[in-house]
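Q: For a teaching handout, I want to show students what a protein-ligand complex looks like in token form. Below are the inputs, and the small molecule is flavin-adenine dinucleotide. Please produce the holo structure.
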Amino acid sequence: MGAHLRELSLGFQAFLELLENRGLPTQQAYLMTNKNNICTDICIVGGGPAGIMLGYLLARSGVEVIVLEKHSDFLRDFRGDTVHPSTLEVLNDCGLKDKFDAIPQHHIQDAAFHIGTEVLPLMDFRGLKPFDYLALVPQWDFLNFMAKEAKQYASFQLLVDCEVTSVIIESGVVNGVMATTPAGALEVRAALVVGCDGRHSTVRKALDLKVTDLEAPMDALWFRLPREDTDAGGLEAVLGAGHMMVMIDRRDYWQIAYVVPKGSDAELREQPISEFRRLVASLAPELKARCDSIQSWDEVKTLVVGVDRLERWHVPGALLIGDAAHTMSPIGGVGINLAIQDAVAAANVIAKTRRENRPLDKNALSEVQRRREKPTKRLQTLQIIAQNRVVSGTLESTRELPKIPPLVRWLSRFRRFRNIPAKIVGYGFGRERVDRSNFKF
Ligand SMILES: Cc1cc2nc3c(=O)[nH]c(=O)nc-3n(C[C@H](O)[C@H](O)[C@H](O)COP(=O)(O)OP(=O)(O)OC[C@H]3O[C@@H](n4cnc5c(N)ncnc54)[C@H](O)[C@@H]3O)c2cc1C
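A: Here is the structure, written as tokens, with flavin-adenine dinucleotide included.
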């Protein structure tokens, strides 16, 4: 602990110990209690995949950066836990791939539709280059790993328990944010605020940015069931008459999203939990006995699915990326992927602009949107098509099983055909690579 921290009062000392016990940076406590205002170059709001990756890359370019995260840690239930090939490629660019590989994880190379008793192979990552698998890693492990790497750089700060409540706008320019912390209010002044605060973004609301709502016909109920070694693995979409669910193999358990028509969650929750168990078992009879492990509705979490995007991702002094700029449907599980690709694009632009001593003006910020808008629109378009054709089609057809077009059934026999959706999900469109000339490697 730094010498300056020893001067602190006993009460604060206890707070520090608490942070240390949780493995959190004590330096941040010093910042929060000794000052109620901080100046930095880049202030990132939100420590999710977009915020932590951007913070890491900027720190590596020598830019002074602070990430403000409202939670005290990265532990969250039912988050996206897939690290896609494009992110593996970014980690490789950064020289972190070997260290990442040491995190306990397992790999998925294919996905299938289960319709009644028929199994239709859907995606195959085998043969894709340079990486041919999805790594399943709990999101908190991934974020802890990236944050630990970022903290090695003196120009990086992560302030947790720090919730941004408003944006400071002066003469039409964003100059910082106001936040609440356990030690009181905090003002952070910055040359650029980057909103990475997810689908309910405070920065987005504060800036009153225009949103295009693309609508989703469904919501998802997330829960877990025990998994056994003899179960099939990978990713499975199970389609029945009038209902469906997506099962993600998490080694010792299945993470499952039961898909319901939008807004129907409350009605279902009025039924006893046994009715929910019955519905799940009717889709996956082999899991019937294990459905008893769902004891109450408290174990079932609702995700209100939304798909939207901002018309403009930036204003003078602020930029938004990740879900804050474009909330993604869970279809294809591409949200983390896209958020990280946005972070790489933003880091490349910010680091280059700083290296060339240019201002982070409209030209620089619009460059990020220009690079990332098209890939986002394309993925959202595909998600909407899948939502309308597969999800709505299944939920509406309550009397019979969904029908697969014969051509799709025939094509799905060929790996090269199954590689196409795998490549879109795995690498997305408009692949971003770390521009090594801007970073310290
Ligand atoms: C249940 C569920 C399952 C999903 N499954 C997948 C999947 O399998 N694969 C996949 O790729 N994607 C998945 N997604 C989508 C994916 O999680 C998101 O697209 C992705 O996390 C977006 O990253 P982000 O960094 O933009 O935002 P988030 O991950 O939402 O991170 C935002 C961060 O900002 C913080 N924050 C919010 N407000 C404030 C504030 N005011 N002040 C400070 N901090 C704040 C939040 O605590 C959070 O840590 C899933 C989403 C959900 C909800």
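A: Two things your students might notice: The chain has 13 helices and 20 strands. The mean pLDDT is 89.
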